[in-house]
Amino acid sequence: MPSFDPVRDAVLNSPKIEHPSPALVRRATHLSVLLNSEPPSRPSSTPHTELPDKLSSAEPLGRAHTPINFRPSSPSPSPPPMRPPPLLYNPTHRISPPGSIMTPMSKAEVEMYKTYVGKGTARLAKRKRPRDDSDTADEPPVKKLAGNAGVVVEHYNSRPEVGVVQRQDSPIIGLKNFNNWVKSVLISKFAHPVLASSSIKQARTKGKVLDLGCGKGGDIMKWSKARICEYAGADIAAISVDQAQERWESTRTNKFRASFATYDFCTQDLEEVFPPQVLAQPFDVVSSQFCIHYAFEKEETVRRMLRNVSHYLRPGGAFIGTIPNAEQLLDRLHELPSETQELSFGNDVYSVRFESREHVGSFGHKYWFFLRDAVEDVPEFLVHWENFVALAADYDLYPVYKEEFHTVFSEHQDHSEFGPLMVRMKVVDNNGESAMDEDQWDAVNIYIAFAFEKR
Questions:
Q1: Which residues, including other chains, have CB under 8 Å from residue 189's CB and lie 6 or more apart?
Q2: Where is the MRNA cap 0 methyltransferase domain positioned along the sequence (predicted)?
Q3: Which of 162, 189, 225, 273 supports an S-S bond with 263, CB 3.0-4.6 Å?
Q4: Where are the alpha helices (DSSP H) in 72-118?
Q5: Residues pairing with 447 in the sheet
Q6: Rounded to whole angstroms, how far apart are CA atoms 281 and 34?
Q7: How many CA atoms lie within 13 A of 19 on its CB side?
Q8: Cα–Cα distance between 171 and 183 in angstroms, integer?
Q9: pLDDT tens for residues 206-221?
């Protein structure tokens, strides 16, 4: 018995379309006609070109395997096959309201779903095969942090790592480029001379760097261009450390030796997280960018941080970094009217909200900081410069440089090296026009750059 031929069946069920010439009649071939239309009635007197007798005399084949030479006893056409009614989308366990399906997502929802992890993904992550005990035998247990430190860790771990191209789409890309330029100035002025005199040498590379608060590895390329020999990156956010290591692994030129560790400089010592071979020789440079202010919650944590910096930094070595400008932040706080209940100030790019107007002591003066597309209302602490200098002296660290970011710019914008560097880093264009608006320019000056020397 011949098998069912759907094409033959569709052709035999299609209507015949009259041609202007009465001698020619063709069958419809449009898909909607072949599959959905019923054959129109046609006067028996209308001439048309018939198909070969064997095909034209056969009735349309149904699902049953009807022989192709079967001739019906009645010339009346077969009724069209019954089609089931269309299925309607009508979920019984709806999570979202019916009217929300076609509502466009807001900008906030779009940003949220860029890094959203649903319940299904979370369950799959839990079901992944656990690592072999032999892989983690030498690793310290994961430390869970609470309080202010826990908030900081959660914030930076939750921020996605985006590619170089997507970073250029940041609404504060001018500010970010400017901050990177300031760090490059610090490295060139105070780290390069120290690295050049280092006793640690290999081929064409020199020096050893500790990046204290390395984050996602944003400065790795700067150290690669400095042609360092060895690098150690440490940060409180474990996911950020993993991303920093991935960034180092993707470095193709001037690749130095590197070690990475999750580390809380307020509560841990370096020897707890790095193996002895990493710390066997002291560092030439310790860099800590936009992070040591978290230690100023109390004197104990500041002293632990300074002890780690000094103990593993060689004499003559450099300790460089960037911190919030406490003097400016306090001036802005005291400018608020006395009747103001909300102790906050800022603009569309950043905001600072203090816990209290007055504070007793040099430590623990808390505020919350927001920076668009960078920091989401994270608790921080003021760093009083004179207090910082006094404590650092107890660990043989002495200041050699301290300037507000605006001053760093005015000092170096016409420099033979740093002026052209601003153009290459897209701080300004070839005409000297800044990529920052006034709000971003105001935001960058809440920081100062510093450098200490170990004596």
A1: 401, 451
A2: 170-455
A3: 273
A4: 107-114
A5: 324
A6: 82
A7: 11
A8: 20
A9: 999 999 999 999 999 9
SS3 351: strand
**pLDDT by residue (tens digit) across 423-454?**
999 999 888 888 899 999 999 999 999 999 99
pLDDT at position 355 is: 86
306 assigned to some structural domain: yes
Q: Of 449, 329, 447, 455, whose CA–CA distance to 392 is shortest?
A: 455
From CA 422, how far away is CA 433, in angstroms rounded?
11
Round to whole Å and give the CA distance between 72 and 192: 98
Q: Are residues 213 and 327 both part of a single domain? A: yes
What total number of domains does the chain contain?
A: 2
Q: Among 213, 219, 211, 214, which residue's Cα sits nearest to residue 313?
A: 211
Instruction: Select from 30, 24, 21 the least CA-distant residue to 11.
Output: 30
Q: Which domain holds residue 347?
A: 147-454
Tokens of 34: 């072949």
Q: Which amino acid is at 238?
A: A
What is the token pair recorded at 281? 């020789």
- Whole-angstrom Cα distance, residue 360 to residue 32? 82
CATH of the domain at 314: 3.40.50.150
Phi and psi for 369 in degrees, rounded to 5?
-120, 135
Rg of the Cα atoms in the chain = 36
DSSP state of 106: P
Please report whether residue 348 resides in a domain: yes
Residues in the chain: 455
Question: Are the C-beta atoms of residues 195 and 207 closer than 8 Å to each other?
Answer: yes
Residues 52 and 162 in one domain: no
Q: pLDDT tens digits, residue range 169-216?
A: 788 899 999 999 999 999 999 999 999 999 999 988 999 999 999 999
